[in-house]
Amino acid sequence: MPFPISSPQALTRRLESLMEAELRRARPDAAPAAIARAVRSPRGVISALIRVTALAVYEVHLHLRWWGDQYFPDTAEAEFLARHASIWGVVRRPATRAIGYAWVQGAVGTIIPAGALLIGLGATFTVTEAVTIEESDEEGWARLSVEAVDTGIAGNTAADTPLTLSAPIVGLVEPVAYVDESGLTGGAVVETDASLLARLLEIIREPAHGGAFFDYPVWIKNKFAATQVAALGNWVGPGSVGVVVAMGTALLPRVPTEAEITAMATYLDEVRPVTAEVIVLPVILVEQPLTILLDPFEVSVKTAVQAAVSTIFAAEAKIGTRLPKSRLSEAISAATGEYRHELTIPAGDILPGARELPIPGAITWVAPE
């Protein structure tokens, strides 16, 4: 049952009543009105003591309620939430660095050393492995593995962005590297309390089993800014595990880059059971077109329905998991301004493949007759 905290004024009234009762018991010969004046007079000593005591008791009640909140992860503050999570093996993902590849062109034999710095727009990157331009490299182009020096989203860089070498290297056509077609990705801020709590509740409801499928999403999300992870048993044979990963956000998931896949595979090789063969796989994003007869057929209602569709996909679309058509229809019905609708495509539940994640595609609008 709930235990509401009384206000200081309510505590004061209660203490006054208790004080009066005790004084009447101690001094039965005293007039009740005199006792009441002595207890309740705003300028009296007894009244001052009661008010101070009421405030002290109120603060104790607040402190006890605060401690009560810390006992449960869904009401705990950040420090205690992190402690709850650590007990279950879930750690707050620290801020991550953007990683990826960039291309340089130069003469055969030119060495780009590990640690060389590349300057971009608002971020600095370092070459993580030394590279030598070989004769086999087409037109003298070599691929560099690069990582942002600082953590956070500033390191995320679009494809074809030029990065200038902080110190020119003899043999290069120009002191510039160009980000490859996948871009530099994976930079993220420290995991939020909401995200940490969601992951903790997942593991509490489905505890880890020392290398079972439930562990792989925890391991990946402890280290990388992944939005969804699914583990597939016997992917390439008995004892093998396929780990399908989607990056980005729930609203805007994306396929992980080659550099991210490599980094995740390296990390899982450190934490996986020794008997497991683990293969990290990029998610396959599958656009799901929709055809909706909508009444009223107005722009504002279409906008509301489109937002509702995006929200339901973000909340309930999972890798390789059925998304019921009824859930989509229910979300559309809840959109502001919607009076009635018919969802004709998809014709039934959305059934993605094992590696597929449904995302909302184009919506075809049909006017009511």
UniProtKB/TrEMBL annotation:
Residues 299-365 form the Baseplate J-like C-terminal domain. Residues 208-282 form the Baseplate J-like central domain. InterPro entries: Barrel_Baseplate_J-like, Baseplate_J-like_C, Baseplate_J_M, Phage_Baseplate_Assmbl_Protein. Residues 105-177 form the Baseplate protein J-like barrel domain. It comes from the Bacteria. Coiled coil: none annotated. It holds the Pfam family Baseplate_J. Belongs to the Mu gp47/PBSX XkdT family. This is Phage protein gp47/JayE. The lineage of its organism: Bacteria, Pseudomonadati, Pseudomonadota, Alphaproteobacteria, Hyphomicrobiales.
